[in-house]
Design a protein that fits this description.
about 40% helix, alpha/beta, two-stranded antiparallel sheet, single chain, five-stranded mixed beta sheet
Length: about 160
């Protein structure tokens, strides 16, 4: 699993995790949130970008992203469900590493690219249920900047 960081360039999952933890250890008295969100872009194929954001509340943050291509998925519902599944897969892997490194209490939010306005409003309850049923906090638009801003920026 390969990630990219605007600050550090191409990194492995292990390197990304170490940099994420290192960022939190720079100022351990600060409050942190870990945000994971996925967005997609439909073209000849479907491009999915999963962003991992470590937010030092009130003091900025760092992010990493992973880009992958998949077959063309024209169904909006299927794309949103796949986006959610990718975010949950990433969150699960990070949660495991956090628990091994003494950060099991770090709040993790899954930012979903759905909102009350627009075509995605019909599947909000379904994807929120997937996320909360997996033990994570679900955030939707307009507050889901992990998916709608960070991941979206790199999906093009």
């Amino acid at each position: 699993m390969e990630f990219f960081s605007p600050t550090h360039g191409k990194v492995t999952f292990a390197e990304m995790f170490q940099r994420l933890v290192g960022y939190m250890e720079e100022e351990p008295d600060q409050h942190y949130h870990l945000i994971i969100g996925t967005d997609s872009l439909l073209a000849e194929d479907t491009s999915f970008v999963t962003a991992i954001v470590v937010h030092r509340v009130g003091h900025g943050g760092r992010y990493f992203y992973r880009k992958q291509r998949n077959r063309k998925i024209e169904s909006l519902r299927q794309r949103i469900l796949f986006e959610t599944a990718l975010s949950l897969e990433t969150a699960s892997r990070i949660t495991t590493e956090l628990a091994r490194n003494g950060y099991s209490k770090l709040p993790i939010e899954i930012h979903l690219d759905v909102g009350e306005v627009g075509e995605t409003r019909t599947i909000i309850r379904e994807v929120i249920g997937m996320v909360t049923g997996s033990g994570f906090a679900a955030v939707t638009k307009p507050d889901a900047y992990g998916a709608s801003k960070v991941a979206d920026k790199h999906s093009k």
